[in-house]
Specification:
Keywords: Cell wall, Glycoprotein, Hydroxylation, Kinase, Leucine-rich repeat, Repeat, Secreted, Serine/threonine-protein kinase, Signal, Transferase. One of its GO terms (molecular function) is protein serine/threonine kinase activity. It is found in: Secreted, Cell wall. Pfam families: LRR_8 (PF13855). This protein is α/β, with parallel strands linked by helices. The chain has one domain (about 35-395): Leucine-rich repeat, LRR (right-handed beta-alpha superhelix) (Alpha-Beta Horseshoe), CATH 3.80.10. It has helices at about 1-5, 10-25, 55, 65-80, 325-330, 375-380; strands at about 80-85, 105-110, 110-120, 130, 145, 150, 165-170, 175-180, 190-195, 200, 215-220, 225, 240, 245-250, 265, 275, 290, 295-300, 315, 320-325, 335-340, 345, 355-360, 385-390, 395. The strands form 5 sheets. A 12-stranded mixed β-sheet has the order 2-3-5-7-9-11-13-15-17-19-21-23, with helices on one face. The relative contact order is 0.07.
Length: about 400
Amino acid sequence: MQLILLSKPRTLQLFPLLLCLLLLPCLPQPLPSPSPSPSPSPASPSSSPSASPAARSLPLSPFNERLEAAYVAFQAWKHAITEDPKNLTQDWCGPFVCNYTGVYCAAAPDDPHVLTVAGVDLNHGDIAGCLPDHLGLLADVALLHLNSNRFRGTLPPSMQHMRLLFELDVSNNLLAGAFPTFLTSLPGLKFLDLRFNAFDGELPPAVFGRRLGLDAIFANDNRFNVSLSSASLTNSTASVIVLANTRLAGCLPPSIGDMADTLVELILLNTSISSCIPPEIGKLRKLKVLDLSHNDLAGELPASVGDMESLEVLNVGHNTLAGEVPEAICELPRLRNLTIAGNYFCDEPVSCLHVPLRDDRMNCIPDWPHQRSPEECIAFAHRPPPHCAADGCIVIPPP
């Protein structure tokens, strides 16, 4: 034992000098105090019941295994970045990762005495590069906000280790490939924003599943294929579903009313839906925004829409809807924006004039300004009326 003790002092004396030489470029950084946590969420460490007030008030050490792993992740990420015009990652240097721009640290949810990386926010950074596989080392991250950058490639599979991930926003990037299926296995994920990328292929039914339980789904402006069967989309418990400018297969099913308890916003504009609007849509009494514009919807606008007492925005413009606009719709107490332009409606109640924002152009309403020509309206009136089947699909009558 004595020989061992006598052999160490010289090594121990040299170690601080070696450490200083390694960290010399980063010496201007101050020692970090615990960084503020991201905005509160169910995964927020600050709300951990196991953390007593005394424990939370103690300064947390900036040195532990989790922060060492985070250091490896951020250095790999920095090397994968090819352009950083705003220099957001310029200070990603040295082991004190809680001092990095865009990095937020907090007490670990499973150990209030351990500091860990809880969130990363590089929104609107215009950063170019890719997301390295080392990203999965950030296992305690609850919020990952990367919108409005130029990240290419796809989401690394190692992100499946982010078991606390609550919000993921990678919108407005250059990401591509199939939907990252590991996302459906993240137990805490509630907010998913993949908008304005180049993802393609099928959007798995599990995205809308009750087991995953997403609260907000933004998948618009990709190249996804989405099924409108009653077993997929309408099984969702989300409050917001935005699938605009995406190819949807199938018809609006009567089961759309099954989302009545949670759905607040549904945007399916320009999705190539060829369908009737089922009367069951009137069950969505919590819905505030409904946009079904620029599709191939046919038949009439159901009077049951007048039961949607929370509705503020209704846009069914640029379809082939016909008949009369139900008066109950224009009498909805919160309706502020009504768009029925580009259809073949033949009558609109006077009560619709009281809707603050209204667009009823290019219909067939007699003595109304900016309507279709009489010839166009007569030609449409001579077409065989569409038949709406029980599943919401349009049945074309035989000639």
